[in-house]
Amino acid sequence: MHRICSHGVKIVSSHTVKQLTILFFVLFSSGIFAQQGKLINLKHADKLIGDKAKGYQRLIGNVQFEHQGMLMNCDSAHFFMEQNKLDAYGHVFIQQGDSLRLWSDFLTYDGNSRIAVASKNVRLVEADMTLTCDAITYDTKLRYGYYNTGGRIVNKDNVLTSQNGSYFSEGKILAFRYNVVLKNPQYEMKCDTLRYLPGPKIAYFLGPTTIRSTTSKNYIYCENGFYDTYRDIAQFEENAFIVSQTQTLRGDSLWYDRKNGLGKAFGKIEIRDTAQNVTIYGMYAEHYEKTETSLITGNAILVQKFEKDSLYLHADTLKSITIRPKDEKGKPQYADSLAEKVVYGFHHVAFYKTDMQGRCDSLVWTSADSTMQLFGAPVLWSEESQLTAEKMEIIITDGAIHRLDMHVNCFIISKEDSTKFNQIKGKSMTGYFANNELRKINVDGNGQTLYYAQSEKEFIGINRADCSRLTIYLNEEKVESISFYSQPEAQLYPPGDLAPSEALLKDFKWRGTERPMRVKDILNHL
Fold it and tell me: Quick one: fold of 382-526?
């Protein structure tokens, strides 16, 4: 016999009136009809077995409950009516609203607190997000769930795993702790603590965090920040750095646009190029990944390390570009030996090396030919010599000056004492160095020399000569001999015969007060 009670419970019994009497007695005595808004409502079961001694009814086959608008289905259940609780077994399914659904093998539910605990093969789906885990506690009133035995969330292209996790459906917020891994076709992120907003697809992370690109060699580390996974934009703070190809970018705070390959650094920044052994420091930087170009301002300093020494270079703005040759298909070649580094310095340029110092308005340094070009009132100091011209080119080999090319209004001055200066002047000059010491100077065009001739014990006079082309040989910064290539006009003046004004060539200017004597002096704008 099949009968359906007024409450919608279908009963398949042994055709005895006794079972029907028990069912109606239980339903009416528990007040299900009277308090349907608060108590768990049994909607359907194929079979019901009442056991008052154990305090629950056993429901078997196509069991369905309703509570506060939420539907629960299972294969069988123990229904604790007086406590307003239930235990559900086999193919458990919960649906709340239009979007949230939960499956599991086992579930306990408290109708008073409205808290469900699901375990074994748990799967929670809302909109385009799917959570799978071994067990989850879910508050159906607050629409809040959490797990602590490991879970996995899939949201379109994003897959997230963690040891602990929580989900707040109403605010669309997910929070995760311990061994958190977020994978995407473009990257993999690992961190200690993560909050993720599935709607805007933004991840906030705390603690040691790494983001590694799966399509390139990019690697990111920080201990605080956020990542917009939809727009591929992120901000990283606390010990943050970005590694790409041969460069590392560090800063107090980093901002990164992965799609456009643009990184920005704020605070104490550092850009290290391992291929060229160059490091640049400053307070603000931009790095364009696709063109391997960096722009640095704010006490910007470049440090080029050599085997036995380092060059420290400052400018208001430093720009660094890495140029790579391309293969037959137009793809860049990333072998370190093939890369060329070009550095531009703009305004208030100053540099310091133990054996060479200088200043100018702007500078271009090229690694391919180890050439440094100086523009805008350049001045160079090497040992006791001051060198000036409208434009200079310094060729550095193995960390040492090899050659110096000077163009237009060239002047070389070395100081004998506070009133005596050896001077060489010409239209263009080429200086040759050995062991960082100026040894030979070729002067071409309007050559003039004035130097103090000296015996072993005293000055013997001032030697002044004019010649269009000449070569000067030096030893320990002192003039050793001069070769003239056309008829010179030369004269040796005894000590005291030349007035102080005549002992200085035209356009003479001593700039010794500008010379950086220490590394920190390059930051002084004169």
Answer: lipopolysaccharide transport protein A fold (2.60.450)
